[in-house]
Amino acid sequence: MNKFFNKISSDLNPSSEGISKISKYNFDKFELSILRIARLFFRSNDDPDAQTWKSAFLIAEQNFSSPFGASIAHVVSISIDFMSNGRTRNFSYIQENSTNALTLITDEERYFLMTLKSIRKNNISTANSYAVMLCEGPQINKFLLAMEGIAIITGDIEKKVIEINGAVDGARTRDPRRDRPV
Description:
The protein has six helices and six strands; from the N terminus they run E-E-H-H-H-E-E-H-H-H-E-E. By secondary structure, it is mainly alpha-helical. The strands form three sheets. The protein has a two-stranded parallel ribbon with strand order 1-3. The radius of gyration is 18 Å and the shape is globular.
C-alpha cells in the first residue's frame, strides 16, 4: 500500500476543503474520460492488490479508438509516475466507483486535468503553473512532456519536429508519421 495516495471517503460534499464540483471547470468529455482513467491508476498506486490499472486500460480502450486507448492509458500512467516523483504530500483522489465520482473533484485531480487542458489549448504558462502546484516544485519537465504526449496522440497539438544535422554525414531526422526525411 502506497501511503502517498490518499483515497477520499464517499461521504463528501463540495464544501469540504480541497473538494469542489467538477461542473465549475468546464472539462470536456475527453478530459473527464482522462480523469476516470487517472483515478483508476491513482487507486492502483494506493492499493496495488486492487489491480485497477487493468480497468484503466479497459476504459481507455472503450472510450478511445484503437490503438489510441492503450497509448493514452500508458501515457496517463507515466504522467502519474512523473508527478509522484517530486511530491512530498499525499495526493488526494476520489475513487472511480464512488457515488461522488461524477460530480466532485479534489484539488490535486483538478491540477492534473487543468495541466492537460492548458496544454491542449497551447497555454504553456498556465500548464506550467498547474504542474508546479501538482508536482510541488520545479521538477515538472517530464510530467509536462508526458501530458503533452496525450495531446499529441489525440491530435490536439502537433509533435514538435526539429531538424538536426548529423555530425558526420549531414543526416537528417525522419518524421515517423511520413517515413521520409523532414
